[in-house]
């Protein structure tokens, strides 16, 4: 029952918030924090209770739901999903704490926020396509409102663009799901695990369905050239929502590929490994260059997500144990690091009301604590050894370099991708220099340093960066067995 | 009962008890109109609604009975007609409840209005069961003529008159084409009832002339359900008609049209005829035109009119697919559409009563004064767009599954692309409710009847998606009986 509890606790909270009076804003804030805190604790409990030595689905909950179409209420966790199930409630709690500064329409904000959390958690635990798709789509609605009501200057545009773009992806994905259902051995099934066990799908069929699913997932990740919604949505969204977008929503795409495309369509996965590799490299290099060109701090971080999700795709394309483990680990570290970066951008924006990189300068002298944390987060993001980003990126690269799919191509292309790291380092260091070093811009001499609420939201993430950097096994070890089983089913050595 | 009558007549009368009851109700309503004083005339709506609830209960057994012909094959009483009768009666009840608070209706006209609504309900119930070309024509005309009057019911309003005249002229024209087509069928087969035509076809096969006749009849059906290119009347009639009539027209009239269309084609056309391609192209055009034109609409009634056109396109996709899911998808889609659309129209009326405007730009800021109601309205909108967890999603899922299952992948792709376009204009309403500087200062306070419609619809919209087992079973049974009864 634990997964059902985790998934629906935020929904329950959201419904209770509906009944609270609108004027009692603090009550609503604390209540939301309480609900997300309990969810987070349950997430940690799952983390410790999870058995790392098996590839079996754990915490299984399965009962019939709509027997007419063989739809089941089927939830479970394995190594592919457990890390995200822990990360999601953590980031949600921190984002709730950070959101205490929301003044406008507090009740609705937290209602939508908790609804969003249920949707996200559901995506990672659902193992039946019908259930999965419902959760997948549920995330869109609150996100639309969170961006559209509480967002920045171009919020309406960003909100509808996000909504339409991702809906486009998911309806194409829906066609793929229906094709899988209708072509499975009778009785047809929506069960993701059942579908991954030797269904008689022909190669051509696999390629077509893979492509349909890929459009849905690629838009979420986002894979170049489907990334254009991301800068708008990330930049216009309120801080806490940007954190959730970058930290969790993007991972729904990569998780979906691993969980669905990789397990159900093995032939297509191998067939499309090289194209995926090329897209990954484009994401890395293109994302890094575009990030470097940004003058807006938040937009830069947004493009750095395109860049970093490229590493994740690189590890996935490799189809090696270390690459896939690295990809899953990269999902976690990117969530932690970029989550922290978005919080930090929010902190400075709340004070200065601008995000122009060129407009700052010398903040180190005025905001020592803030600057220190920000620099640690940037270093983690650019992959400094000892911090979280290094471990996962290294695994992705190593995985891609040792790939057996087509060693020559993989070695050359990975070599190009490594150059991306240099550019990544470049834009972060340039930013640090322009914002924190040099003479203090007199305009900012009265800025207050980071406050307690913000520290509560950010410090746990910084601690995680250090912890995962030193002991990557904590998170990277979660997926080992499942990845081994997955590769065995793919037939890759 | 009825022992003095010939046996087949008395059996027929028993089989159509709900229809007889509704007919009786119409007379009761007319008499009540004569007796009640002006101040109490609005009670007639309650009376009519209550009567239709009884008729609804009387119709329920229909969906569990085996199919049979009555009145010398003129009518068929089967689960399929039963299902559509429930939809028609349900929307009539909702419509009457909505009318209670619809201000533009003058008190002294309520009696006529209620009687007409009850009679048109009767007409559509008979349409759902018509199994003879003559009966089909009579029932379609019966329902259409009353609808012409209902659309033009606000006599002071120029738009109402304009809508009625357009509806009437195009309706008359399409009826003529329909009869012309039907005459081909009678000419070829020498029979007018479906059972005899079926016999003729199984013996002699289909001739081109027969197909031409059927396609001409399609013009008549297309007009009823506003299939592109026979949809021109719909936006004007929807905009001009009293809003409850618009809601009724968009749900019940379409449901009845779909019922006769499906029955005629299932009964008369063998499965593999090439007409499906023509229908498929029409469905694709209908979806696309409906959705694209809806983008630019600012009047909520016109917007829902165009979105309704698009929905007919989806229903057609399910119907074309014929396969295992086909009819089932049509039934569930129609049921989902009933609750979703009725819910949305209840909002349109509640807002109109407050602001006197049907312009969606006047919805600005509704979420600030009515957060709960705005969100409920939004759920209806995403149900129309087919986003889970709503009934509209399940309907769309089944329609798409039916299309893929029978190989119409191109239709499925056009269908999903259309749902993205559709989301845009539904989200546009949400945009005004949520994101724009408020115009509405005071909360709208819908009456009890409107709230009842909203929340019953909300419940059903969520229930149909989350717990659809029973409904799918029933729909499966209904379509199975329809198919076996017609030898498929």
Tell me which protein chains meet in the greatest interface and how many residues each side has. A-B, 36 and 35 residues
H/E series of chain A: HHEEHHHHHHHHHHHHHHHHHHHH
Report how far apart the termini of chain B are.
36 Å
- Backbone structural class of chain A: mainly alpha
Question: Can you put this structure into words, describing what you see?
Answer:
The complex is a heterodimer of chains A (493) and B (488). Chain A is mostly helical and 493 residues long. Chain A folds into two domains: 1-165 and 227-251, no CATH class; 272-493, no CATH class. Chain A has 22 helices and two strands. Chain A has a two-stranded antiparallel ribbon. Chain A is globular. Chain A starts with a helix and ends with a helix. In chain A, 61% of the residues are buried. Chain B has 488 residues and is an all-alpha fold. Chain B has two domains: 1-270, no CATH class; 272-488, no CATH class. Chain B contains 20 helices and two strands. Chain B has helices at residues 7-15, 17-35, 43-59, 79-100, 110-129, 133-151, 158-189, 194-204, 208-225, 233-240, 243-268, 275-294, 300-320, 326-355, 366-369, 371-385, 391-405, 409-434, 448-466, 469-485, and strands at residues 68-70, 75-77. Chain B has a two-stranded antiparallel ribbon with strand order 1-2. In chain B, a hairpin with a 4-residue loop joins strand 1 and strand 2 (75-77). In chain B, helix 12 packs parallel to helix 18. Chain B is globular and about 70 Å long. In chain B, 60% of the residues are buried. The chains are: A mainly alpha (493), B mainly alpha (488). At the A-B interface, helix 5, helix 6 and helix 7 of A face helix 16, helix 17, helix 18 and helix 20 of B.
Name its key features.
heterodimer, A: 493 residues, mainly alpha, 2 domains, two-stranded antiparallel sheet, 22 helices, 2 strands, 74% helix, 3% strand, globular, B: 488 residues, 20 helices
């Amino acid at each position: 029952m634990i997964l059902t509890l985790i998934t629906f606790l935020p929904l329950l909270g959201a419904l209770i918030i509906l009944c609270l009076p609108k004027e009692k804003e603090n009550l609503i804030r604390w209540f939301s924090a309480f609900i997300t805190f309990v969810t987070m604790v349950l997430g940690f409990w799952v983390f410790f209770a999870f058995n790392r030595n098996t590839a079996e689905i754990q915490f299984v909950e399965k009962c019939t739901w709509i027997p007419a179409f063989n739809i089941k209420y089927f939830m479970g966790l394995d190594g592919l999903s457990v890390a995200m199930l822990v990360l999601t409630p953590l980031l949600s709690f921190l984002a709730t704490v950070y959101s205490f500064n929301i003044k406008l329409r507090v009740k609705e904000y937290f209602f939508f926020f908790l609804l969003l959390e249920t949707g996200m958690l559901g995506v990672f635990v659902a193992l039946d396509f019908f259930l999965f798709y419902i959760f997948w789509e549920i995330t869109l609605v609150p996100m639309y409102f969170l961006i559209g009501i509480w967002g920045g200057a171009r919020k309406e545009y960003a909100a509808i663009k996000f909504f339409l773009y991702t809906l486009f992806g998911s309806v194409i994905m829906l066609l793929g799901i229906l094709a899988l259902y209708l072509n499975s051995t009778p009785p047809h099934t929506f069960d993701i695990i059942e579908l991954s066990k030797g269904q008689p799908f022909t190669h051509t069929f696999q390629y077509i369905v893979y492509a349909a699913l890929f459009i849905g997932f690629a838009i979420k990740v986002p894979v170049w050239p489907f990334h254009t919604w991301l800068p708008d949505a990330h930049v216009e969204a309120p801080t806490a929502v940007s954190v959730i977008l970058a930290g969790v929503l993007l991972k729904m795409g990569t998780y979906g590929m691993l969980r669905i495309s990789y397990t159900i369509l093995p032939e297509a996965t191998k067939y499309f490994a090289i194209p995926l590799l090329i897209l990954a490299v484009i994401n890395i290099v293109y994302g890094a260059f575009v990030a470097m060109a940004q003058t807006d701090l938040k937009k830069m971080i947004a493009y750095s997500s395109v860049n970093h999700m490229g590493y994740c795709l690189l590890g996935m394309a490799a189809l090696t144990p270390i690459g896939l483990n690295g990809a899953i680990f990269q999902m976690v570290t990117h969530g932690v690091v970029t989550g922290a970066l978005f919080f930090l951008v929010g902190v400075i924006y709340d004070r200065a009301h601008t995000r122009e990189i060129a407009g700052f300068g010398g903040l180190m002298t005025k905001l020592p604590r803030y600057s220190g944390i920000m620099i640690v987060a940037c270093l983690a993001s650019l992959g400094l050894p000892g911090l979280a980003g290094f471990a996962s990126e290294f695994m992705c690269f190593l995985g891609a370099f040792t790939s057996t799919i087509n060693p020559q191509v993989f070695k050359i292309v990975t070599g190009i991708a490594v150059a991306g790291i240099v550019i990544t380092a470049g834009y972060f260091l340039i930013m640090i220099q322009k914002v924190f070093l040099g003479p203090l811009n007199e305009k900012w001499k009265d800025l207050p340093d980071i406050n307690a609420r913000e520290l509560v939201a950010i410090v746990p993430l910084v601690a995680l960066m250090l912890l995962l950097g030193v002991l990557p096994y904590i998170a990277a070890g979660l997926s080992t067995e499942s990845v081994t089983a997955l590769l065995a089913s793919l037939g890759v050595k | 009962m009825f022992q003095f009558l010939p046996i087949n007549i008395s059996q027929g009368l028993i089989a159509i008890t709900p229809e007889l009851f509704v007919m009786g109700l119409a007379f009761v309503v007319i008499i009540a109109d004569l007796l009640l004083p002006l101040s109490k005339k609005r009670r007639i709506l309650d009376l009519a609604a209550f009567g239709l609830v009884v008729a609804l209960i009387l119709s329920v057994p229909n969906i569990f009975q085996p199919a049979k012909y009555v009145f010398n094959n003129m009518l068929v009483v089967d689960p399929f007609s039963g299902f559509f009768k429930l939809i028609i009666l349900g929307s009539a009840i909702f419509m009457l409840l909505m009318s209670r608070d619809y201000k533009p209706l003058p008190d002294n006209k309520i009696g006529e209005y209620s009687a007409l609504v009850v009679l048109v309900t009767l007409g559509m119930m008979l349409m759902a069961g018509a199994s003879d070309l003559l009966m089909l024509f009579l029932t379609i005309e019966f329902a259409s003529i009353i609808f012409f009057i209902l659309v033009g019911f606000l006599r002071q309003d120029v738009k109402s008159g304009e809508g009625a005249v357009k509806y009437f002229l195009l309706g008359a024209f399409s009826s003529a084409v329909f009869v012309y087509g039907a005459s081909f069928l009678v000419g070829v087969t020498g029979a007018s009832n479906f059972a005899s035509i079926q016999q003729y076809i199984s013996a002699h096969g289909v001739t081109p002339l027969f197909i031409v006749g059927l396609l001409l009849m399609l013009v008549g059906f297309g007009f009823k359900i506003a299939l592109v290119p026979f949809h021109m009347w719909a936006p004007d009639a929807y905009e001009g008609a009293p809003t409850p009539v618009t809601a009724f027209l968009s749900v019940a009239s379409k449901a009845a049209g779909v019922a006769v269309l499906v029955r005629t084609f299932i009964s008369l056309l063998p499965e593999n005829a090439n007409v499906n391609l023509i229908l498929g192209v029409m469905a694709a055009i209908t979806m696309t035109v409906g959705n694209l034109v809806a983008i630019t609409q600012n009047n909520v009634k016109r917007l829902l009119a165009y979105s309704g056109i698009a929905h007919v396109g989806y229903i057609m996709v399910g119907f074309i697919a014929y396969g295992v899911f086909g009819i089932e998808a049509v039934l569930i889609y129609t049921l989902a559409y009933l609750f979703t659309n009725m819910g949305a129209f209840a909002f349109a009326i509640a807002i109109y009563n407050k602001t006197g405007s049907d312009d969606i730009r006047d919805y600005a800021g509704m979420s600030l004064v009515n957060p709960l109601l705005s969100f409920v309205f939004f759920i209806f909108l995403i149900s129309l767009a087919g986003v889970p967890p709503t009934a509209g999603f399940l309907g769309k899922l089944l329609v798409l599954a039916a299309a893929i299952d029978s190989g119409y992948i191109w239709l499925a792709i056009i269908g999903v692309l259309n749902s993205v376009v559709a989301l845009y204009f539904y989200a546009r309403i949400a945009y005004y409710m949520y994101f724009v500087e408020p115009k509405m200062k005071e909360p709208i306070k819908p009456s009890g009847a409107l709230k009842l419609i909203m929340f019953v619809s909300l419940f059903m919209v969520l229930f149909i998606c989350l717990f659809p087992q029973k409904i799918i079973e029933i729909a499966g049974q209904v379509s199975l009986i329809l198919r076996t009864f017609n030898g498929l």
